[in-house]
Amino acid sequence: MPNPTAAIGDDMIQALDRDGAICLRGAFAQHWVELAAEGIRRNRETPSPMFQSFSPEGEGAFQSDIWSRRIIPQFETFALESPAAAIAARCLRTGTVRLLQDTWFSKSPGTQARTPWHHDNVVLGPFCSVWVTLDRIPRQAALEFVRGSHRWNQLFMPANFFESAESDLPAVEEFYARYHGQFDIAARETFSRVPDIEARREDYDILSWDMEPGDCLVFHARTLHGSAGNSLTHDSRRMVTRWVDETAVLAPHGRTVVDRLLAEGFEVDLAVGAPIRGNLFPVVSPFA
């Protein structure tokens, strides 16, 4: 089997450290693309309790599910046997990684809802996402990044976090705000409001790529990212795995995520400030 990290030279690692995101061409062979696509098809038929539909009626279908590898064997195989773990390990400069999460996103033609600008901050420490496209996605519809924003040394929260908990939000923005709404208001000085990047795009160095099926994005968790709706004539599907090393810990505001997992019947034993451990987060040693 070819080494899946052969194309990730020191220059790519340096670019990831500098920019917060890189694109790896053809990192996932066609059979991995087909496996993930079949998993999404089956997951739609058998959604988990974490399944989300973000689009208002009549505005296309923006869907996602999280940690559904427990019920979808295609996702279990993809997460643990595809090149994703090796790519994450190479990019995190470690021989062993933990699978934090499997998720997927699909936007059908006509979907107007955009993925709002955000970053992933419920874990502190080395943490990256491996984002694989299953369809041809031109740059204007692909995931975008604010270059270097992972180096701003700021934790961002949605506007809802600073405002009334009764704020009327679109479904997709409510999803990103949900895990922060119960956090102690006294700690809000720790966080910055996500800037209105769409309103002032010219003020930011925005990074994106034209992508073909099997191409892969790797990005640091704190790199601000978002994407437009789907104006294409075909679905825009992405398979994502998120990875941490053994030193990453649950952030103070991560307790609400644990509460949600417990409420949905997941077996988790995570404590704020403690390393990520447990059966839900398996260890993978891709180079062993």
Would you kindly provide a written description of the structure presented here, covering whatever features stand out?
By secondary structure, the protein is an alpha+beta fold. The protein has a single domain (10-265), classed as q2cbj1_9rhob like domain (Jelly Rolls, Sandwich), CATH 2.60.120. It has helices at 10-19, 30-45, 73-81, 84-92, 159-162, 171-178, 255-263, and strands at 21-24, 52-53, 62-66, 97-107, 115-118, 123-124, 127-133, 144-146, 155-157, 191-193, 206-207, 216-220, 225-227, 236-244, 249-250, 283-284. Strands 1, 2, 3, 4, 7, 12, 14 and 16 form an eight-stranded antiparallel β-sheet that branches. Strands 5-13-8-11 form a four-stranded antiparallel β-sheet. A hairpin with an 8-residue loop joins β2 (52-53) and β3. The longest helix has 16 residues, at 30-45. This is Ectoine hydroxylase-related dioxygenase (Phytanoyl-CoA dioxygenase family).
Alpha plus pi helix count: 7
CATH superfamily: q2cbj1_9rhob like domain
Largest sheet: 8 strands, antiparallel
Shape descriptor: globular
Round the Cα radius of gyration to an integer and report it.
18 Å
Q: Quaternary arrangement of the chains shown?
A: single chain
In CATH, the topology is named Jelly Rolls
How much strand?
15-25%
Per CATH, the architecture is Sandwich
Protein name: Ectoine hydroxylase-related dioxygenase (Phytanoyl-CoA dioxygenase family)
Keywords: Dioxygenase, Oxidoreductase
InterPro entries: Phytyl_CoA_dOase-like
Pfam family, one: PhyH
